[in-house]
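Notes continue from the previous slide.

Worked example: a multi-chain complex. Inputs as given:
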Amino acid sequence: MRDARPDEPRGDALSRIRAAIRARPFARAALAILLLLYSAAILAPLIASDRPLLVGSSGGDPGRRRWPLLEALSPLEVFLIVLWALALLAPLWRLALFRRPSRRGPALAAALGAALIAALVFGASSRARAPFATSDWKARMASGEIDPRTAVLPPIRMGFAETNLAEAYRPPTWLHSAEISEAGYYVRGPRAPVKDPVTGVVPAPSPVDVRPGEPARNSPWRHPLGTDSLGRDLFVRLIYGARVSLSVGLLSAAALFLIGVLAGAAAGYFGGAVDLLLSRGIEVVLCFPAFFLVLLVLSSTDPDVLPPVLSIALVIALVGWPSVARLVRAEVLRLREADFVVAARALGCSPARTILVHVLPNALGPAIVAASFAVGAGALVEAALSYLGLGVQHPIPSWGSLVSESHHAGHWWLQLFPGLLILLSVTCYNLVGEAVREALDPRLFDHQETPR
Amino acid sequence: MLRYVLRRLAWMVPTLLGITLVVFAAVHAAPGDAAAMASSAEGSDPGLDLEARRAQFRAEHLLDQPLTRQYLHFLGPFDLSPQGHPAFGGSGAHPWHGLLALDFGREFGRTGVPVAEELGRRLAVTIPLALLSILLAYGIAIPLGILSAVRRGSLGERAAALSLFALHSVPAFWLGLMLILLFGAAGLGWLPVVGLHDKDAQAFGPVAYAWDTVRHAILPVATLTLPTLAYLSRQVKGAMVEALESDYVRAARAKGLPERAVVLRHALRNSLLPLVTLAGSILPALIGGSVVVETVFTIPGMGRYAYEGLLSRDLNVILATTTLSAAMTLAGILLADLAYAVADPRIRHA
């Protein structure tokens, strides 16, 4: 968006990217928003759940404390939450342990190790359980089996799969049209009860069941973004949907970067038959209407073998790698006969070492730029796939599948809010990608689309 | 020039073959028995029991044959089925079949319509929409890009750049849904949002019919055009900015040409060229996007056809739609490259 300035800082790719982001207010804001979204996705079970965090006394066992919410976490969730907490503490760490901020490697390894150990210990110590089963904790609190006063609840007391049929398709509760009377009728709006002119029948009321810990019937905070066909809270489902929608973009970009770099490096460095074969392959995939190929491959993968999140990411990578491979191939071709590469070969380096240590680090710039834009593109493809119903399986939400919950124009909140989040996240990805491009590849014209 | 064209055409053949192989492999790697899912194997000929009907269905569509034979049958031009070409053991009733004979067999569904026939009907919907949105996108993006390059840094340009940036990140299906909410019966009520014709459009006069079609097409075309427009105008602006900073523009300014002539005659002409080839990558995006847009607006086009075929595991429909869209993409890329080669002699002699 802006010119490459002559005072652009030199240095390794990471510090240049960081400087470029720091210099652009939009990119900075985008990064902050993305961090916020990722935090919400990682901490989702601690933010919103129908389980209490802590129960003081349970059943016939009055002295025993239980942590129903933590018991329901999966090892992967524990890993990510611990990692997130350690990352948050990074500035403190730097003060206490590592005087020099440049030693990032050991700190990262230590954090990863600690999170892994926590996840393994957690996984080994807990029993197998259904990850998204709705809990009966609220019912137990309502029946008096558990004293609600001894329970500590998470900030939002709704589960992402917790249904409440009386509140199906309830508009955002801060709207006047969402008000429900004591008897269970909508007070105004298009769903207010109207007596049938012929039969004289008034539609049946649906009294709202306010469970322990939940906001009152007409509190604006009860369902701030409305509910879906089963009365599930849209806001909570958006928080949980962020996990799928945010991970697919990153995973697919990482995978296509890896495939593309390896294929491009091999084609560029070895030349000859390898190059011919890979170049033809690249051309075939590039000429293919990518979305058709994604649909085709995805409809033939088995969700029992590969979790849908991974298969979607892999399929997107499968159609996306050629653009990265082409860029890497061109760079490697340019560098292959450079003096330092010839020197490396003359010193007896193996091809693998020459490529990985000497050629690739100098050839990755354009590929990193392409991969950073692929994050947003992958997220868009995932949204479209989930909208078409080929994404993750019910009841796990993703932002794309949430849009398709209702096609009725009267249920506008179901269509508006998830789409806004997709738009927000992809715009942020692209703003960061723009900063990456200007850091690593200051040419303004998008040279990924050079004439074939 | 002729040699260049022929060389390009010759390279298209292996690419297209590779694409058909990929599609064929992916379709056959899919889990599930196509015969068990096909409704025509369930419905017709009530005298036979279910297993026998499925066996008959497999024989009819060669699903009981080796994959190589099925692939050759799909490729054509000889029909390898029992009713096929005499040279391959058929009865000769239906000698030609496959891609080279432009015959993709019948749909697996209950009706058994010839796929090529249905595809023709679907293309007559999708192609005009795609072409129209490409034309519109270029027609708006070029002046917009020039204007933002010339007015770079102004408040209006910065606002336009940011909104185009966001527009580039909009999911197409959501854009369509929001347009429906805004302009459909639930919002302003200005435009129809379902299908391409009114339900009793057949009774309209020719003028009313055309007007009805135009009104139905506005929102789908807008949904296809806007993200493309956002992408293109950013490219135009980038190319123009680069051109405006080049030496020949400085020379043109230095010799006292009016700014208008500098921008339109010198900078624009040189930066337009690379944009032509972008059409080659926009076309596949539009074809892929047609699946979503046709789903949102319930339009019976090719994208929707491909998607329906995928859901019902209809091999003939999947093979036909994917091969055809790949061929159209290749043709689009070729045309764009030819236009480039015509304009720039350095390319065709390279």
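Summary box: Chain A is about 55% helix and 0% strand. Chain A has a mean pLDDT of 82.
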